[in-house]
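The records we work with from here on pair a chain with its fold. These numbers are not coordinates but entries in a learned vocabulary of local backbone shapes. To see the layout at work, look at the sequence and tokens printed below.
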Amino acid sequence: MNYQDIEKLASLKESNNLEFKESTGQLDRSMETLCAFLNGEGGTILYGVRDDGKIIGQTVSDSTKRSIAEALNRIEPFVDLEITYVTIPDTEKYVIVIFVEEQCFMRPFTYKGRAYQRIESTTTVMPQERYNHLLMERGGKYGWDLRTSTKLFLLLSANIGLSWK
């Protein structure tokens, strides 16, 4: 990811998979959003970008990186994600980018013990019913090893002469 990529993202509006934060001073709230992205279709958080899309950047110290790592450790279950520090040209500031892919087989995720969801550009606490549903999908009869693959079925059935009905 480079500065031109940041400019493109910042030109978009916040959505169900994009969030802008002025700084990591808003870390708790952004971790709730990251949790919501994990419970949905994935997404990107940009620190150093105002709500109106203006890129302002922020300084990054060891303390900043440590704070991010500590906050990420409060997300359960553990998730592998991508953190990028993009330099703003002609400054000593950065835009911090955290990107997560969809994690449909590990949901629900929680931050500080609470699950969150994203609806448009708003992050809210996930209703208990939705949480229970995702929990059942993760470990119950909807587990990945019991899911059928239509593509695999079609491939196998073509080889032995079955038809899909």
Q: What stands out?
A: The beta strands are 18-21, 42-47, 75-76, 82-87, 94-101, 110-111, 116-119, 122-125. The first strand starts at residue 18 and ends at 21. DSSP finds five helices and eight strands in the chain. The CA atoms of residues 6 and 95 lie 8 Å apart.
